[in-house]
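The freezer alarm interrupted the setup, so I double-checked each line after restarting. Inputs confirmed:
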Amino acid sequence: MPPRDDKDRANLLQGTLDLLILRTLVLGPRHGQGIARLIQQQSEDVFLVDHGSLYLALQRLEERSWVSAKWGASENNRKARFYTLTPTGRAQLTDKISEWNRIAGAIARILGAEKSEA
Amino acid sequence: MPPRDDKDRANLLQGTLDLLILRTLVLGPRHGQGIARLIQQQSEDVFLVDHGSLYLALQRLEERSWVSAKWGASENNRKARFYTLTPTGRAQLTDKISEWNRIAGAIARILGAEKSEA
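Predicted 3D structure, all chains:
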């Protein structure tokens, strides 16, 4: 087995983490840990979001008013910050989904290119 | 129109540039400019690879022996460095394609998740 190129994956994830967070919040308000858990579950353990990256991203999204946040109680009654998608965030999500589809489509075209095109 | 988030795209591209270069070289040896042109064409102008990133990536791939390079003459008879995929590079390409499919599949699952899963 070759060593896994974690740096490549981290770069890729950084570029799409905002997309995944915004998409997760369409399902309803959630605290940070809940967002990370849902991304991990729905990706079938492909994305393990580390807490540092997650909270940096959430902070950035809050500063841009793409999410709003307020304090509440988590399922085990701990104080936690709950994040909600704003209308601006929802519009951004639509743009980011288009952009992702554009990029994924372009990569698919390159990966599928025929040898005879050389 | 919202401002395009070029930084996000750059991060994403950095993580997949090696993949695109290796995949392009399956079609035969090429000089750097030829690689950039083919990536741009096959992606239908989604990926405009800047020369700095391209040559850094090619240098890295050569150091890892995933590509080999030798001097030759370009179509307009200029001296140019031609890159060839090595057997190690070909094996890496296979791994990177699997990894890309894993990531793209995971993102597709998240984007396609039903609201009712909340």
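Quick read of the result. The CA atoms of residues 79 and 105 of chain A lie 42 Å apart.
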